[in-house]
Backbone:
């Protein structure tokens, strides 16, 4: 935790309890409140509620807090269905105490505000549900566990069982669990309702390697893959040493030894009837129906003519490249780029019947700089930090007719939209999906064109 800012010269409020009325939602799963002239970011509350909030961190310029007692509940408050989150718990289910409709309204408000503040664009955003059971493989089979919602659950019942991929941490006693919110402490409690049925069955009863992480993936054929990642070789903490902090971050993201505990470590996935076999530890959309839904929208928006060219940036295993190639045909070059070589290898194998597709292992900004052909359409799904100026600038200089941009962080998405606007592109259509129910996360897709 970083040192407290000197902007506030008064006493440290950490541990204090204050009575506050909650205001608008903020990016990160909290509501904004004020007390004695100071700003508090309060988790576990809804706009308009009067709560008792315990300050967990005083940063000087603002405080972080948790609503520990709801004095005047909002109409949209429901009984939380996640025993792992809540005050003092994990950060897995930020909005487990709100109806699904209220959750989507909160996320829509955040996306709207981020676009106004960072992209200087006033627009109203609606966050749509991502229904379970829409994805199908060859022959129309559904993802295991998918299907119609429980008819007895009611319209306001929380959405559960949507996550097919998750990562757990292992404590010093060898127990698997999740991190306490903003802490390295491990909570050995696996009752979060997000995972698909059976994903964590038996995990709590086993002893794992202390300090390791567990990657669990339930694929589209119903096979569970469990891979244990060795503990990262993280340098010891040294207070105030920026080089040590950078070294720790680099070590945490470095390649680690893997041990396949269950399954093959190779997850089978289907999108639009095509079969992929990808690493269980690599990237795939965690919501079991997201890849299908997003690829359908990409295909609709791309609307490529036969022979037209397209780029798929941050292509992963080439899910979007496949849909683009279906439209462009064998004479239309569809080029994809991804920094993870294993994902490129998986995608090349899955798309070997599409002669127009070629995937490259490279950094996106470096790859774009080496291109000399103008693409008709560009699709990009950057990591949470967004594409940024280093990618958007050369991308817009390539002058594609259409850009389909996908973002899972409202602030990064809004910053990228602002860069597109500055380069002369405008958002023609924007769709936002609740692909992470009960959390503060939301997926946004934008279609951009010149002028």
Residues:
């Amino acid at each position: 935790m970083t040192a407290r800012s000197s902007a506030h010269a008064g006493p440290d409020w950490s541990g204090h309890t204050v009575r506050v009325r909650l205001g608008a939602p903020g990016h990160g799963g909290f509501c904004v409140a004020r007390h004695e002239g100071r700003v508090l970011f309060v988790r576990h509350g809804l706009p308009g509620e009067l709560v008792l909030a315990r300050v967990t961190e005083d940063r000087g310029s603002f405080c972080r807090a948790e609503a520990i007692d709801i004095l005047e509940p909002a109409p949209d408050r429901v009984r939380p269905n996640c025993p792992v989150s809540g005050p003092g718990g994990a950060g897995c289910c930020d909005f487990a105490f709100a109806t699904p409709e209220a959750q989507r309204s909160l996320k829509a408000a955040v996306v709207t505000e981020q676009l106004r503040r960072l992209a200087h664009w006033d627009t109203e955003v609606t966050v749509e549900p991502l229904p379970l059971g829409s994805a199908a493989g060859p022959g129309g089979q559904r993802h295991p566990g998918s299907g119609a919602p429980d008819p007895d659950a009611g319209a306001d019942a929380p959405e559960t069982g949507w996550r097919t991929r998750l990562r757990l941490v292992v404590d010093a006693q060898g127990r698997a669990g999740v991190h306490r919110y903003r802490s390295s402490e491990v909570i050995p409690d696996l009752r979060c309702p997000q995972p698909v049925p059976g994903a964590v069955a038996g995990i709590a009863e086993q002893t794992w390697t202390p300090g390791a992480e567990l990657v669990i993936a339930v694929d589209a054929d119903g096979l569970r893959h469990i891979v244990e990642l060795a503990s990262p070789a993280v340098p010891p903490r040294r207070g105030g040493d920026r080089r040590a902090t950078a070294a720790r971050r680099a070590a945490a993201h470095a390649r680690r030894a893997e041990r396949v505990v269950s399954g093959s470590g190779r997850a089978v996935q289907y999108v639009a009837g095509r079969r992929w076999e990808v690493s269980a530890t690599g990237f795939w959309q965690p919501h079991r129906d997201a890849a299908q839904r997003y690829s359908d929208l990409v295909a609709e928006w791309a609307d490529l003519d036969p022979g037209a060219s397209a780029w798929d940036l941050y292509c992963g295993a080439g899910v979007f490249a496949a849909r683009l190639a279906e439209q462009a045909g064998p004479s239309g070059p569809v080029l994809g780029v991804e920094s993870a070589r294993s994902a490129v290898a998986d995608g090349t194998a899955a798309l070997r019947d599409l002669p127009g597709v070629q995937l490259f292992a490279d950094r996106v900004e470096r790859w774009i700089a080496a291109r000399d052909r103008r693409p008709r359409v560009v699709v990009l799904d950057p990591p949470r930090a967004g594409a940024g100026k280093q990618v958007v600038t050369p991308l817009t200089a390539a002058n594609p007719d259409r850009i389909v941009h996908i973002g899972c962080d409202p602030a990064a998405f809004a910053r990228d939209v602002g860069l597109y606007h500055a380069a002369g592109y405008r958002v023609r259509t924007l769709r936002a999906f609740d692909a992470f129910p009960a959390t503060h996360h939301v997926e946004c897709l934008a279609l951009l064109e010149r002028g």
Notes: The chain has eight helices and 22 strands. Residues 134-155 have pLDDT under 50 and may be disordered. Residues 107 and 134 are 23 Å apart (CA to CA).
